[in-house]
Amino acid sequence: MLLIRDLTKRYGDKTAVEGLTMEVKRGELCAFIGHNGAGKTTTLKCVAGILGFEEGGIYVDGISVTDQPIATKKKIAYIPDNPDIYDFMTGMQYLNFIADIFGVSAEDRKERIDKYAAALSLTEDEIATQISSYSHGMKQKLVVISAFLHAPDLILLDEPFVGLDPKASHVLKEIMRDFCSAGGAILFSTHILEVAEKLCDKVAIIKKGKLVKFGSMDEVKGDASLEEIFLEMEG
Amino acid sequence: MLKALFKKQFAELFAMFFKDRRTGRQRSKMGGIILILVLAVSFVGMGAIFYTMANGILLGISEEMSFLYYFVMGLIAIAIGLLGSIFNAYNTIYNAKDNELLLSMPIPPRHIVFVRITSVAALSMLYEGVVLVPAFLARVISKPASALVVINHLLLFLFVTLFVVALTLVLAFVVAAIARKVKRKSLVTVVTSLVFIVIYYYCYFKAQGVLATLMTMTEVPSAIKKGLFLFYYMGLAAEGDAAGMAIFAAVSAAAFFLAYVVISLLFRRFAVARSSTAVKGKVGEVRSAKPQAALFKREWKRYLSLPIYILNCSFGTLMMLLAGVLVFVKADLFTVVLDGVNQAFPNIKGGVFAAAFVYLVAATNDLTAPSVSLEGRSLWLIRSMPVSTVDIFKAKVALHLALTVLPALFMGAAFVYAFRLDALSAVLLLLSVPAFVLFSATFGLMMNILKPFLDWKNETIAVKSGLSVLVSIFGMFLFVLALALLFLPLSAWIADTWYLLIMLVLFVVGDVLFIKWLQTVGVRKFEALS
Questions:
Q1: Phi, psi (5° rounding) for residue B172?
Q2: In this predicted model, what pLDDT tens digit does every residue of B343-395 receive, in sequence order?
Q3: HSE of B353 in the Cβ direction (CA atoms, 13 Å)?
Q4: What DSSP string describes B309-364?
Q5: Are A187 and A202 in contact (CB under 8 A)?
Q6: B380 has a chain A CB within 8 A of its CB
Q7: Which site among A46, A50, A125 would you substitute to test the B interface, given the most B Cβ atoms closer than 10 Å to its Cβ?
Q8: How far apart are CA B511 and CA B240, in angstroms?
Q9: Which single residue of A20, B100, B174, B327 has CA 20 to 30 Å from B530?
Q10: Which residues, 6 or more positions from B38, have their beta carbon under 8 angstroms from its beta carbon?
């Protein structure tokens, strides 16, 4: 579903990501972990088509992100670490906007909004409210709903559990798992190693822009815990 | 406790001198000094205008009507103080982001209100000072002034400020109360601002006539003594009348105290209401639209949500509609101006003259110039959507066209009627209007792609500051002026219709070039933004 091959991204003289290669297949849930500034967000943004990159290639379902950005974006949903969304819209206007852009039919959007809003305990009243009055958690819930609106094939999430209450976190994990079971693929960054360990099939550890470990959870951590492996690598 | 509150409030008030609002970083010492100097020069410049005006009044009034001097200058100071302070009071008192934080601390609300009012008063004093300081100087320099006159002038500065703050508090309270009730808070700000602008200009034009009449009188009209007694006493006080001073001081202080007590009592309800009474739309409203329409709706919603965007970037829409009506109703006025021009340049028929008018007013709309900057930190969103960058540009330009083309055509049509233009000139003029609007829209967008500012904390900075806004507005003004002025000498050789055709072709070529740039370089530069 997602193939990143020899990705190198630079900001001026600084190399943020260097020669990164990894693959996430359909049905796989892959955690992306690393210290602050390791290059996780940069990689996710490159995949989402938000950032360009100097070398390498990124393919979503075999389609190049560089050559056909619109086609790949149609298959992706991206949730950033900080949900800076349009304060000037209500929650419903925002969801309608996203659905319009992705061409989701009125019936489908209604059904999906109802489903995910109910799961994440975002009430109709809250959805009808101006986003400017939302808490960080409510914005995060809204962005999560919007990500599932167009039934994407690949979801990229940057620190998705930050700001969510325990119940919403639990529900999101279930939704993520169900999504992958239904054939979707997820790549998400997190600092919560326990969640990554329990939830994911695969893990990618990045350090100073380079991928240092990548594989199935069992391959990477063996008998140790993910936390032990991570701390060992961090030195 | 009060000391800490004052320190915080005044640090906020004077932050502009020490911090760059665009970057949030500390200004260099030199930067701060330059800014203070620029402001000082502006205030001195405005003060000089009022000084001249004050001298004119002093020369024109008789001894019996001496109260009139401060009656006029004081009222001007009150009007300027009110205009400058009302939205500051609304934002400082009811809309401050730290209201809840302060209310959560062991601080009596009346202390919070008092400190906030002091900040409003300080700024208000600055505005009034632009009028009252020159008024004081003019008075003591041009006529002998007793000690009481000097003391009363100084006291009046204080009590006029108290009076203005009392009025400001009431008006800001009304704005806050209305804003609580209506769905679109931005509408309240826009309408209130427009009402103030209309009142200001109405009073400005009316006042000149009234003042001229009053200056010819030798006896104080009873309408002033009874109906405007407070300002009558204010005028008397400035001439050393102790009773007048006492009355004005007592009324101003009482008004201020009353407003302070009422606002203190209501503060908690209004200050907290800002976050707890969120505006709601219809529940469960699911509407679908095509992606291009959705992008336009996004721009439209952003526009409607930002009063500063509406007032700064589309004021020309209102101006064109008003100007169109004026041209229709007072066609003679414009034909007289054209006749005047014809005395020096007899070949000018009116087509180019009308076109230049329309272009100039249309150029005051600069909706595309801050449109990229306004994406701000949510730029990631549109960049992650499956829409082409060209479609994003189209939506931005479409908003500009939607708000500018029709009013500009209306104004153009009014000129066609007023100048009785021939069919060919009329067609060329009306064709050149949308071509020019597209020209200015694409130019503004180009400038903003070249000079975007995305890391703002307040939309005001994106809309008002920035090189793209400055270059778009003044660039278009200068361009239109150059086109119009160039025609004056050329009119001896080139007919009006030919010049209209040349301008039309120029705009169309410009449109094509700018669009081409947007589709190529513009797309690349926009996609490289982060």
A1: -65, -35
A2: 877 777 888 989 999 999 999 999 999 999 999 888 988 988 899 999 999 99
A3: 25
A4: HHHHHSHHHHHHHHHHHHHHHTHHHHHHHHHHHHHH-TT--SHHHHHHHHHHHHTT
A5: no
A6: yes
A7: A50
A8: 66
A9: A20
A10: none
Q: Tell me which DSSP letter residue A37 carries.
A: T
CA-based nearest residue to B121, from B154, B73, B66, B167: B167
What are the sequence ranges of the domains in chain A? 2-234
Whether this model's ipTM surpasses 0.90 comes out as no
Q: Which of B356, B364, B370, B374 is nearest to B317 (CA)?
A: B364
- Interchain CB distance below 8 Å, A124 and B283: yes
> Which B residues 243-282 touch A at CB under 8 Å?
275, 278-282
The CATH superfamily label for domain A2-234 reads: P-loop containing nucleotide triphosphate hydrolases (3.40.50.300)
**Over 60: is that where the pLDDT of B55 sits?**
yes
C-alpha–C-alpha distance, residues A25 and A22, integer Å: 10
B184: amino acid identity, one letter: R
Q: Residue A96 and residue B287: Cβ atoms within 8 Å? A: yes
Widest pairwise Cα distance in chain B: 79
| Burial of B399 per CB tally in 10 Å (0-12, 13-18, 19+) | buried
Nearest to B271 by CA among B155, B379, B180, B387: B180
Q: Could you give the 3-state DSSP secondary structure of residue A10?
A: strand
Among candidate residues B450, B456, B510, B453, the one with its CA nearest the CA of residue B480: B510
The pTM for the full model equals 0.72
Residues 6+ apart with CB under 8 A from B505: none
Residue B88 has pLDDT above 90, yes or no: no
**Mean pLDDT over each residue of chain B, to the nearest integer:** 85
Give the gap in angstroms from C-alpha B80 to the nearest C-alpha of chain A.
Answer: 32
Task: Provide DSSP, A153-213.
Answer: SEEEEESTTTT--HHHHHHHHHHHHHHHHTT-EEEEE-S-HHHHHHH-SEEEEEETTEEEE
Cβ–Cβ under 8 Å, residues A128 and A90? yes
Which three-class secondary structure state does DSSP give residue B438? helix
pLDDT tens digit string along B165-212?
Answer: 999 998 888 888 877 777 666 777 788 778 877 877 777 777 777 777
